Structures are given as C-alpha cells and as structure tokens.
Amino acid sequence: MGELFSRLSEQTSRLVRSEIELAKAELSRKAKAGAIGAGLLAGAALFGFFAFGVLITTVILALSLVLDAWLAALIVAVVLLVVAGVLALLGKKSLDKGVPPKPERTAENVKQDVQAVKEGFRS
C-alpha cells in the first residue's frame, strides 16, 4: 500500500511538472506572437502619423491656392488646436470620473456584510 501511494505521489508530481512546462511553452509562444503584434501596431501607428502629417500639408497647400500660404497654415493650425483642446477636455472629464479609482459599490457591500455579521453575533 505504501508503494502504491509513493508511485501515485511520484506520478502526480511528474504530471504537475509536465503541465507546468506545457503552460510555460504555450505562454512563451503567445507572448512572442503578442510582441510581434504590438510591434506591427506600433509600425502602423508611425506610418499613420506620417500620413496625417502629409494630409495636413495637403490641406495647407490646397488652401494656399485661394489664400496666402501663411494664412492657410494659420487656419489649419487653429483648427488642429481647437480639436486638440476639445479632445483634451473630453479626456480630462473622462479621467475625472475614474479618479481616484475606488470600488465604491464593493466598499458599500463590505460595510453591509460587516453590519450583517455584527447583527448575527448580537442575536
């Protein structure tokens, strides 16, 4: 009987080690794929940034056909600053809703649980 438990323990340990190795290998493959994906997204963002710059230049050049070049550039810059300001205000408003990050509902539930336990001890 002792030998049976010894073999069971040994096989269980071997099984656990094998599962851990399998999990490590799987996570390693997934991490590598994730890193490649993140790199590709970073490259896409960089090229998108350059494309946006070219698009802005195109708008300035198009406006300069009917306006002075400096005025065309100024108009585009003001529009971009207004868009940036609106996005900043919306972002700040959104951040303010989540800061400080505290789980208010969970805290209320814990208070109710503590109160229920106290009442349970009293009765």
Automatic annotation (TrEMBL):
Write out the entry's keywords from A to Z: Membrane, Transmembrane, Transmembrane helix
Q: Does the keyword Transmembrane apply?
A: yes
Q: Spell out the Pfam families in the cross-references.
A: Phage_holin_3_6
Q: Which InterPro entries match?
A: Phage_holin_3_6 (IPR009937)
> Which residue ranges does UniProt annotate as crossing the membrane?
38-63, 69-90
Top-rank lineage group of the source organism: Bacteria
Give the protein name, as stated in the record. Answer: Membrane protein
Source organism of the structure: Cellulomonas aerilata
